Amino acid sequence: SALGPALEGIDAVMHFAAYARVDESTEHPDRYHENNVEVTGRLVRAAQQAGVRRFIFSSSCAVYGSPDADHLPVREETPLRPDNPYGASKANAETLVRDLARDGSFALGILRYFNVIGSDPERILDDPAVDTRLLSACLRTARGEREQFTIFGTDYDTPDGTAVRDFVHVSDIASAHVALLERLESGADLTFNVGCGRAASVREIIRATEAVTGRPVPVAVGPRR
After folding, report:
1. Tens digits of per-residue pLDDT, 37-85?
2. Which of 51, 62, 84, 139 has the smallest number of CB atoms closer than 10 Å to its CB?
3. Residues 25, 89: contact at Cβ < 8 Å?
4. pTM of the model
5. Strand, coil or helix: 134
6. Which of 32, 64, 86, 113 is catalytic?
């Protein structure tokens, strides 16, 4: 009931809100479906009723699951095969938003983020320190708030044996939204991956943390998660 008045006179909506923890999604898949899919549908319908003309949906690389070698590097055309409830909720939300856009009432843009990292440089918004996040754990270890940082698996088929990901800074994520908003014209249905384009390993992130902070990051090795 609050959405109608809030959206009155609004030209464009960027929908970022979601539950976004893979481990939590496996414990509460119903909660993730309700919040990430059903609530998204309610927002889109309210936006349509309010005459919103442009809608950007923040999705995730989790919609791709774990692509095989034939689908690397991951492109927008890579089949969606999520392997956890979080990824499935994002893929289902994409489908729902796209279906609702078919009547031409709004132009649609979808951005699939890879591994978002960092904080707003102006400190308007801070990235909370959460130990399940790689950089947060590194920084907390460097500050002495954790005894050690655990690398989960050192036997991957990568140059240094640790897991490799494409990390993209949150400021670049913001810039991508602005760029997409400027491209959204009537009838548009655009989907883009948002990444850095260069992979970084866990050990590289550890070394970067040590270089920036001037403090060691004690490391322990654990099994793959």
Report:
1. 999 999 999 999 999 999 999 999 999 999 888 888 899 999 999 999 9
2. 51
3. yes
4. 0.90
5. helix
6. 86
